[in-house]
Amino acid sequence: MGVVPGEAIEIRPARPDDEEQVRRFLGGLSSRTRTRRFFSGVSRPGAGFVRALLAVDERCDALLAVHEGLVVGHAMSHRREGEAVDIEIAVVVGDEWQGVGLGSRLVRTLMRRAAARGAGTVGMDVLGDNRTVLAMIRKMWPEATMRASCGAVEVTARILR
After folding, report:
1. Total Cβ atoms within 10 A of residue 146
2. Is residue 5 part of a domain?
3. Which parts of the sequence belong to the N-acetyltransferase domain (predicted)?
4. Are 115 and 105 in contact (CB under 8 A)?
5. Taking a C-beta distance cutoff of 8 angstroms, is the pair 111, 126 a contact?
6. CB burial class (10 A; 0-12, 13-18, 19+) of residue 16?
7. Whole-prediction pTM value?
């Protein structure tokens, strides 16, 4: 399937009944994409792992990007009480959907939701060789602090309201 920028993609909160679709989505990711998101080659995610990715409560938020009934992206945040950052985020976009702005859309939606819940700072870890994501971060948060550590880049930024 060729990806056409602007194709109708719904970004919505994750639900418990999304478990099987998210498992299929994760299983369809390339090893490279899985490693960039999870820092390991998770190939057959267990039920508990998938449920954790779908958790939505006072501390966790999870969003799905859905196209024609299929999950094509996932974003999540976790609130950190008493830490240097208010929330940690993580995002993954299906291989054939990368490079069309879907990751940025997921991040912006997640940030709006986090800001509405009072978050002011965001943190994320990015593998150092993931130049595309690091460039997106520099564009979205030019003032972000980036610190290299063990092959990854620890990013801290203010959430723009």
Report:
1. 15
2. no
3. 9-161
4. no
5. no
6. exposed
7. 0.90
Contact in structure between 64 and 71 (CB atoms under 8 Å): yes
3 in any annotated domain: no
Q: What is the pLDDT of residue 1?
A: 44
In sequence order, what are the residues at sequence separation of 6 or more whose Cβ sits closer than 8 angstroms to the Cβ of residue 142? none
CATH number for the domain that contains residue 65:
3.40.630.30
Query: What domain range is 111 assigned to?
Result: 10-158
Amino acid in position 93:
V
How confident is the model over 32-58, as pLDDT tens digits? 999 899 887 666 778 888 999 999 998
Distance (Å, whole) CA 121 – CA 88: 9
Number of residues that this document lists for the chain: 161
Provide the number of structural domains found in the chain: 1
